[in-house]
Structure formats: structure tokens, C-alpha cells
User: What shape does this take?
Amino acid sequence: MTDRERPPEPGGGTWQFETVAGSAGERRDFRITLGLREGWSRSGRIYDIEQAVRVAHDWMKRRADAGQPFLSGMFTRGEVVYAWPGAGSKGTAGSDREPVAIFTGEALPLYSGDLDDESICILLNDLASEMGRVLGQEDLHLAYKDRAWVLRRVRDEGRG
Assistant: This one.
């Protein structure tokens, strides 16, 4: 490649990178997996991943506007494939698959270093619950560092 074919260096000269002060620390990765099919029924409405993205984005912005901590991450679309045992006789096991949204990220020391593990888990539960309510989910699957748990929808007795 000749000098004429090379893209110009922004600002001239060469680029170098160095570690940002306060950015190095323990890795604290997280994941929220939620179905895009509403409820347990095969005929449940299928949401687009964009709807999950919008809920998460609104949650982040609301918290940022209020000066509260929030988590950032990225979404990918996936497919969960699963099976369950039958009623005792051979050949009666069931199986299914469904589309899911997977929100992953890391609580980076530079931006979230003041948050302890319990605070991160509370934020994950809050975000997952909000997405689950909007997308009509029964179970939400979460992971943080070396832990995993499931949030399950329960009846709110205070709402009749």
C-alpha cells in the first residue's frame, strides 16, 4: 500500500494507547437472558429484540437522569433449546425452543468501581424485572461473576 492509498492518521503522527488510571481491576461480568415469547404458551406473542433494547435503554436513561447507578451492556439474540422428561414411559419426553434476548456486560472498575457485588446484583434484578414485565416473561435467568439465579414472576397480592 502506498502512502497515497493509506488513510490519513487523525491529527498526524502515530497513535499509542495507555491504560487509563482507575480502569484496571477485578472482572465482574454479568448476563441477563430472557425469552422473547410471552408466557409459557407456544402461541404467546413473539417480541422483537428491539423491544428489550428499548426497555433497557429507557431504564438506563431514567437512572442516569436521576443520578443513580446503572449498568451498560450489549444485546444479542439467541435461541434456547431445551427438553423435559415425559410421564414415565419411554418416548414421552418433550422438547422446545424459543428466541431469547441476551444482555451482557461488565461492571467496569472505571465506571462502576464504587458499586459492591450486592449493588450490582440489585441493579441486575431491577433491570431484568423491568424487561420481564414489559415482555410478559415468567422466568428470567441471570448470572454475575461465578453466580447464577432465576427470577420467577409471582402474583402481587396487593393488586387484586
Summary: The longest helix spans residues 117-134. Helices lie at 49-65, 109-112, 117-134. Strands lie at 29-35, 74-84, 94-106, 139-144, 147-152. The longest strand covers residues 94-106.
